[in-house]
Amino acid sequence: MFDVIRIPAFKDNYIWLLRKGASVVVIDPGDADPVLEMLERDRLALASILVTHHHKDHQGGVAKLVERFPTAEVFGPAQESITGKNHGLQGGEHVFLQSLELDLQVIAVPGHTLGHLAYYGAGCLFCGDTLFAGGCGRIFEGTPAQMYDSLMRLASLPGGTKVYCAHEYTEANLRFALSVEPGNCCLRNRLDDVMILRSRGLATVPSSLALEMETNPFLRCDEAEIKRSASIGGAASTPLAVFTEIRRRKDSF
Ligand SMILES: [Zn+2]
């Protein structure tokens, strides 16, 4: 098995580093410096880089890392411009990371960007800016229908899946969640827990898919209270219509 190490970057990004022995795989290195610092301090070798999507805060450090570790493989969306990418992926493939003896399933999750990928294996989901703890990413390039389908694809994974998203947005996400589902006790409890963690400067990620299913409004668009909050009645009250409305509201919450 491998260890998963959280490297905070910028204001609220998380870079995920998977380590087995002296070998390391890094996911969404927006900044190379904190990664290199850890690799040099612990004398680790970078074998592979996985990128979920093209935004700079997810791939900005790739060039510098590859300069230092020229043999590192760089995996990323085939249809997006990723510096140093030598393995383009569409979703539907598997990536075998030799250094970790880890097989990852590549899942296409368009919506935040059109080529956005999630990586799933050994009970861990690395989902970039698609599914967040308590929320989901903004829809920059895709349609609400694409984003909703992507989230449903992730929601079909086992409940015990650990959700490693790329930002610490949980507290703000849960405040919004409570505005559309104030009667959800589990959600209230989660916000209390998260507020305590954050007041101590601690991370709230990873979460579990089971907890997301109970508290994340974007995975709960067929719940009666969320439907009512979205003020969509009758024939229009499909989960997608509810999702579209609450995602729109979150943009200006
Ligand atoms: Zn992004």
Write the layout of secondary structure elements.
Elements: E1 3-9, E2 13-20, E3 23-27, H1 33-41, E4 45-50, H2 56-59, H3 62-68, E5 73-77, E6 87-89, E7 94-97, E8 102-108, E9 117-121, E10 124-128, E11 131-132, E12 135-136, H4 144-155, E13 162-165, H5 170-180, H6 185-199, E14 207-208, H7 209-215, H8 224-229, H9 239-250
Parallel strand pairs: 3-4, 4-5, 5-6, 10-13
Antiparallel strand pairs: 1-2, 2-3, 7-8, 8-9, 9-10, 11-12, 13-14
The structure holds zinc ion.
What are the main properties of this structure?
globular; 14 strands; 6-stranded mixed beta sheet; alpha/beta; 253 residues; binds zinc ion; 9 helices; single chain
Number of E strands: 14
- SSE order, as H and E? EEEHEHHEEEEEEEEHEHHEHHH
Radius of gyration: 18 Å
Task: Extract low-pLDDT stretches.
Answer: none
Distance between the termini: 41 Å
SS field, number of helical segments: 9
* Computed structural class: alpha/beta
The biggest beta sheet, please?
6 strands, mixed
Description:
Helix 5 (170-180) runs antiparallel to helix 6 (185-199). Helices cover 33% and strands 26% of the residues. The mean pLDDT is 96. The chain contains nine helices and 14 strands. The chain is globular and about 55 Å long. Strand 3 (23-27), helix 1 (33-41) and strand 4 form a beta-alpha-beta unit. The strands form three sheets. It has a six-stranded mixed beta sheet with strand order 1-2-3-4-5-6, with helices on one face. Strands 7-8-9-10-13-14 form a six-stranded mixed beta sheet. It is α/β, with parallel strands linked by helices and 253 residues long.
